[in-house]
What does this fold into?
Amino acid sequence: MPELPEVETVRRGLAPLCEDRTIVSAEFSRDDILIVPDDAGQKPARWAQEFTEGMVIDRVYRHGKYLLFDTEGERGWAVHLGMSGSLVVYTDGAAPDKHTHAVLNMCCGAELHYRAPRRFGRWIAARDGPARTAVSGRVGIDALDPTLDVRRFMNRLGGSQATIKSRLLDQRLVAGLGNIYADEALFAAGIHPRCPASSLDPGRWATLLRGIRSVLRRALANGGTTFASYRDARGRKGGNRGHLSVYGREGEQCPRCGNSVERIKVAGRGTHCCAACQQMPE
DNA sequence: TTACTCCTGGCC
DNA sequence: GGCCAGGAGTAA
It folds into this structure.
């Protein structure tokens, strides 16, 4: 499941292969993959024709788990990879399979293929501005934004009785964490996922923010985590799986205290933690 | 705050 | 053959 490190890895691969390239044509095999704002009054195919064909991709950037594509003329769209989505650029041809839902044909024969076997991902067209405007309101500050300090972090997520894990997963508060890195960050900080957010003191918030940064940066350095389907822009798997402490390690020894890693349910999500060294507050 | 929906590969 | 995970939007 692509989260911030996976999406950023894809972005780093895509940018040099897409930026300054002209889109020759865009093909969507399914209408429901592309969301066009209601008031744009256009069918996806027509939107694609009008706003991608003949356009030059200016910039590929990212906010949270969204990949953002800006074209010349201040237009753009956002891509969410969902659970199983990938964006891979082929330079010497590749046959789309039944899970390939969109293909951007670019100049020089490069093709951007969007595959999403579970079809949870979406392309979202911006109504009348750059890609960033397509996701405003859906995402809060990016988890790796250098201006996110402890005070802002605490103000955003605190003040709620909800579990800290559900707060970390709320993309409108801080964007980029999914189930894997929420569990890893809470483990790194020694905080139990069921802690009410309102119970954390400033010291714990600081530790948690450091934990988030640390697990995200390590994952990024390893090219992301691949469980099943995640691939980068060249189709390669990520190498971070072996660096996870608790996620996917139910029943194994906690790398910190040696107790058994548990899998519990928090906020409706499968959650991995060590009950011995991730504590609830008094 | 919880539950449902979407969807399919992978697992039992 | 059936069930489940899981992000995000929406409904109850």
User: Anything to note?
Assistant: Residues 1, 65, 80, 82-84, 118, 120-122, 138, 169, 171, 178-179, 268-270 of chain A lie near DNA strand C (CB under 10 Å from a C1'). The helical segments of chain A are 4-18, 44-51, 132-135, 150-157, 164-169, 179-189, 202-221.
